[in-house]
Amino acid sequence: MTSTERVYGYFPGCTLATTAVDYDASGRAVAAALDLELREVPDWNCCGASFPLSAENVMNFIAPARTLIAAQREGQDLATLCAVCFHVLKRSDSYLRTHPEAADRLNAFVTEGDYDGRVKVRHLLGILRDDLGWEVVRRHVAAPLQGLRAAPYYGCLLLRPEAEMELDNPEAPKVLHNLLLALGAEPVGFARQAECCGSTLLVSAPEANQRLSTAVIESARSAGAMIVVTACPLCKFNLDRAQEGLPAAERLPVAYFTQAMAAAFGLAEHAGPVSPLQAAA
Amino acid sequence: MTNPSCTTALVVGAGIGGITAALDIANSGFQVVMVEREPSIGGHMAQLSETFPTLDCSQCIMTPRTVEVGHHENIRLHTYSEIESVRREPSGSYRVRIRRRAAYVDWEKCTGCGVCQEKCPFKVESAFERGIGQRKIIYTLSPQAVPNKPVIDAEHCRYLQSKQDIEAGRAPAVDKQGNPATPKCGACAKLCPTGAIEWEQQDSVLEEEVGAIVMATGYDMLPMERLPEYGGGELRDVVDGLAFERLLAASGPTAGKVVRPSDGEVPKQVVFVQCSGSRDPERGVPYCSKICCLYVAKQAMLYKHRVPDGQAYVFYIDVRAGGKGYEEFVTRAQEEHGVVYLRGKVSKIFAQDGRLIVKGADTLSHRAVEISADLVVLATAIVPRASTAAVAGLFEVGVDDNGFLVSGDEEMAPVDSCVEGVFLAGAALGPKDIPETVAQASGAAAKVLSLFQQRVAAAATVTA
């Protein structure tokens, strides 16, 4: 097989290694189908799970920095799937890049090596768009998702803040729309496509969480969506949970974008909730 | 041979600022060359319905001035024209090359009867009507246009396009009978009573020598597409302030009836969003656009005149009503017309079930608010005309970080530029309302007249 060598460091993160294994598996499967080699970063640890809002204590950056340093040793761009990990790693990298004095202090505490700002933190969606292009994705589609009205749900962490995340315009995002178009699906924009699902309010204010997630689901439903497609395991968790009280037939299924890709690529075992719908369509 | 004591002034831009400067200079007995990019003069003021704080009809107070410019023996008016190049002579005067775009109409022959516009079978969206209305392919900006002579939009003209296709071999050179193919349509040329349509007209270039310049190139509105969080450019019933002026204007496409662009229904709930893109360094412009607080109060008031049972809401950060009678004007909107003012920003606007949901904050009651609206008016930021920097560069005048013209001294010489003989006025310097623009324009004209008087006096001394 001849193909352009596209090798990336890969950071699955805790969620994809535990509760969202289907996101991880479908992500690896579609990457392989596209000849993208994802090399898992050796000895990775949790990204830190939230971007440190108090930057004064540089120790807050130890967790993400350790992973960045590990990726840097491998010498490739660091690919991520989990929107939260992408958010934390990308912003940490951006902070350390623009605050050399913080990077210096941090380096004094990390034994594995020095952070030098050479790693590019990427999200698979950006890799698909910028390194491959939608046309290449389209060429791999074996079973177009025809008639599938899919609501691209961006949530908040994937895109914001725009200047640091460098993925898409949070007020008018297009990347998931364009992926769905390439897969032959019909993307349906909806009002709350880039609003928060409630995130970790589930712990501190579950009723607020329920309200926010329900609003997202209702917004997608009223736009005529048959399925919600996301890049965030926390969003999927919240949106599924918010619908637990509903009869199964009334629930709006939530899929990872990699599952939609798997369905279109003919990798049925990784298609998650996308395949039955497609069969029905 | 250039004239060391040249006392002809060039006025660039024929909005209310340029018009004022031109008339002040011309009425003092000096020659004025006026250059305007659009087919007719009046600028944005010609688009407005009524002016604050007096609620005068904008057209009515401006028309005497535009007509005076059109007929003035000391003013040479070049509309549909742009400055192409400028050369500074050793004498200190300027040689200015002016390119007039082909209008495909001989304005000497044209009587302005309007038959061509009436009979032209095609329409396109009109930039002057801000997306609310259409115009014919042969058009004037308004029935009160000065000069009242039409131009043909070559890009959309059936005749000119098919003529080009035949000439370029994209269309057959002979018709079915074997005769040489003729371009399609040409209705205007067939019906023009004076034979003024001139299909072969080209751009023309002329040169003028001038001794002083007033730059009054005006402003534009931040493109709606820059505000995707408000549905800008996507949602038809989200319009900008200038588009709402056209809805209110008696001369506008709806004859002053306020209707939704999407379905023509009368909107019963209208939300105005101040600082749409202004005072937003991250996503818009960092400065205050200055005129919005007053024009939004005016528009809300005029809306209530047209739709007494409607409700108007205004989202604001703070109300900046500095100016004579301005605070009282805003108070009138609130107290006499029941316009509801909500202090807070709007975060998002989206369509739901045929209406617009406006999500915002009311920071006085500390509540998140959602208003279901029929129409939303965004008071978008005032920005310089896109061509400002290029035109300014021809005269070696600088622009600031935001693209506005830079004065010689912002405090003590606001209408001077850093270049001798070049003066500045109006919203090209920064957001400005009509009275302030007119005051600056008269100031710039006075500077020009002072310079010319010195030259006249010097010439008299030499002669003596």
What share of residues of chain B is helical?
10-25%
Mean pLDDT reading of chain B: 95
Which radius of gyration of chain A do the C-alpha atoms yield?
19 Å
Proportion of beta-strand residues of chain A: 5-15%
Largest sheet of chain A: 4 strands, parallel
Our count of domains of chain B comes out at 3
Number of continuous helical runs of chain A: 14
Poorly predicted regions of chain A: none
Give the structural class of chain A: alpha/beta
CATH superfamily of the largest domain in chain B: FAD/NAD(P)-binding domain
Instruction: Give the CATH class of the largest domain in chain B.
Output: Alpha Beta
Domain count of chain A: the total is 2
Secondary structure: helix percent of chain A: 40-55%
**Separation of termini of chain A?**
34 Å
Structural descriptors:
heterodimer; A: 281 residues; Rossmann fold; 2 domains; four-stranded parallel sheet; B: 464 residues; alpha/beta; FAD/NAD(P)-binding domain; five-stranded parallel sheet; 24% strand
Please characterize this protein's 3D structure.
The complex is a heterodimer of chains A (281) and B (464). Chain A contains 14 helices and eight strands. Chain A has helices at residues 13-17, 21-33, 62-74, 83-98, 100-107, 124-132, 134-139, 162-165, 175-182, 201-204, 206-222, 233-242, 257-265, 274-280; strands at residues 6-11, 36-40, 78-80, 121-123, 149-153, 186-187, 227-230, 254-256. In chain A, helix 2 (21-33) packs across helix 13. The relative contact order of chain A is 0.14. The mean pLDDT of chain A is 92. Chain B folds into three domains: 8-101 and 203-218 and 385-463, 3-Layer(bba) Sandwich (FAD/NAD(P)-binding domain), CATH 3.50.50.60; 115-191, no CATH class; 222-383, 3-Layer(bba) Sandwich (FAD/NAD(P)-binding domain). In chain B, strand 19 (346-352) and strand 20 form a beta hairpin. In chain B, helix 1 (16-26) runs parallel beside helix 10 (434-463) and helix 6 packs parallel to helix 7 (292-306). The longest helix of chain B has 30 residues, at 434-463. By secondary structure, chain B is α/β, with parallel strands linked by helices. The two termini of chain B are 22 Å apart. The chains are: A alpha/beta (281), B alpha/beta (464).
